[in-house]
Amino acid sequence: MALLRVSNLEVDFDTPEGLVKAVNGMNFEVAEGETLAIVGESGSGKSQMVLSFMGLLAENGHARGEALFHDKDLLKMNPRDLNRIRGKHIAMIFQDPMTSLNPFLTIEKQMAEVVMHHQGLGREEARSHAVEMLRAVRIPDPEERIKQYPHEYSGGMRQRVMIAIGLLCEPELLIADEPSTALDVTVQAQIIELVSELRKQTHMALILITHDLAAVAEIADRIVVMYAGEAVETGSVDDIFYRPQHPYTRGLLASVPRLDRESDDELQAIPGNPPNLLDLPVGCRFRDRCVEAVEQCRQRPPLWVTQDGRSSRCVLPVEGGEILEEPAAVEQTA
Amino acid sequence: MRQEGLLRHATTRLLGLVPTLLILITIAFFLIRMAPGGPFDGEKVLPPEIRANLDANYHLDEPLLQQYFRYLGQIITGDFGPSFQYKDWTVNELIAQGFPVSATIGGLAMLLAFVLGTLIGTLAALRQNSAVDYSVMGVAMLGISIPNFVVAPLLILVVAVYAGWLPAGGWDWSWQRMVLPVITLALPVIAYIARLTRGSMIEVLHSNYIRTARAKGLPELLVIRRHALKPAILPVISYMGPATAALITGSVVIERIYSIPGLGSYFVQGALNRDYTLVMGVVVFYGVVIVVLNFIVDLLYAWLNPRIRYDVT
User: Fold this and answer.
1) How much is the pTM?
2) Among partner residues A56, A104, A113, which is closest to B215 by beta-carbon distance?
3) Out of 1.20.1050.10, 1.10.3720.10, 3.40.1260.10, 3.90.850.10, which CATH number does the structure's domain B98-262 have?
4) Rounded-to-5 percentages of helix, strand, coil across chain A
5) pLDDT averaged over chain A?
6) A contacts of B215 (beta carbons < 8 Å)
């Protein structure tokens, strides 16, 4: 059974320029203990999508659709109920560890408050639990360092603290929103590895949002490829890496250096820019940048789905797949 | 480590205050002497012998520079000298009598302004761009723009004269006589602090660490109290140094309107009468109060903000 099932999720923002459609009908599931990677370039709506069902959108953002966690819709929950889930059953770590910790409070305060609030621990218990957690994320000398303020930590160390905070209540789901992007290259791999290792120990599910495809290949079970606010392709790691169906996925893979490829293969950038989210094109959103675009792409492309959970939204057929959604006529989507 | 740094920071800052005060004293001393007239120029012209005696008694017959250094030497010992106008009173005695009154009104006004201002500012920030926000901030703008010499008579008229709830003025250390002057003094400060708090609170609420706090599942009230209030109040703290000094010393107008025997009244009288020692005494005293309050706020700021590096001043 799915731990989290997101269906027809839409997120848009009221801006002075108009309605920005950041997420347009996302569908995906995360099973218990599964690692799901969400990849896509900047602005594809990855972060806003997860922020929406965590109730963390900016004030001008609105979410519609469903995000069922244990069959309860996070989007329709009142703040009280949502707060019983956030930080306890679903934890989240963010992209920028330099600004994600409160500079005015000690690490101890920021850690202890989570378990004191969710598990009703006393200050002493909370402190020792927090120290253990810091040890688990390999902060040296945690008894002393827990008394310090965030500015006394390096970026990588702060992200370790964020991870420790996330894992304090042993959540069933951890959402990591580009946890390594803002860090030094040497630290990036360590952080991803740490997250993956702790996930295995605790058997929690993980949603990893990233554009680090190498990390994805290593630790993910399944991958969702996002483009312009929707999932263009979903599949297992092997499917996506070795049998990519959607031209965007292929373009994405061709733009990343890989060890298993001939060294004289040139990296291919995807030409052009993603569509304007204020004015999304009717039909396939990738067609202007797609080398395989045909006339038919002016209509909304069909969604191909296979028995083993692959899907691709493209006119190109997926082997062994069926069309779940018929392409709609131009007039209807306009 | 932190305490040590704080101490060093404090000492350096204290030493830096000495030249500030010296400059203040020098400018004030020569300014009041440059003003036309003197303490003994009345409508009645004094006989030359009496005048010469008086001048000699108060060392006014010496060259100005000599008087200046004499004065410096005198105030180092904490002695502001005798008042020229209030016979049998030393300036120290006048300050000791007037300052507690001014400080009480000013201190109460600041307390009121801080509590109400941060509260209103926070509420406005939480209801950003709502009707509540706009009306509160509109009233705050009014509070800042209307001068207190307009507010005071209006309050007296409505509350004291028409309604008769409170006395119109005077002083006897009773709370009834404190209410109106305190409110009059506090109003513009409440408004300013509210605006300041609103702005910084909105900024803080959009910061990443507030998002983290919310992601932890903490109730919104706790998020604000524990995570947002301190950083949002920091700009208010730095404003409070000069503001408090202005409130407990600069209530000259208010003290006149409400007939309160505070330091401000003596200052005005002293300046009009060319009571050199009284004016100088009050100016130096004001200076010390302002400088010390700024110093305290500086320390408070450093103490609240763990990122301040004390080794750099």
Assistant:
1) 0.83
2) A56
3) 1.10.3720.10
4) 35, 25, 40
5) 90
6) 54, 56, 86-87, 91-92, 94
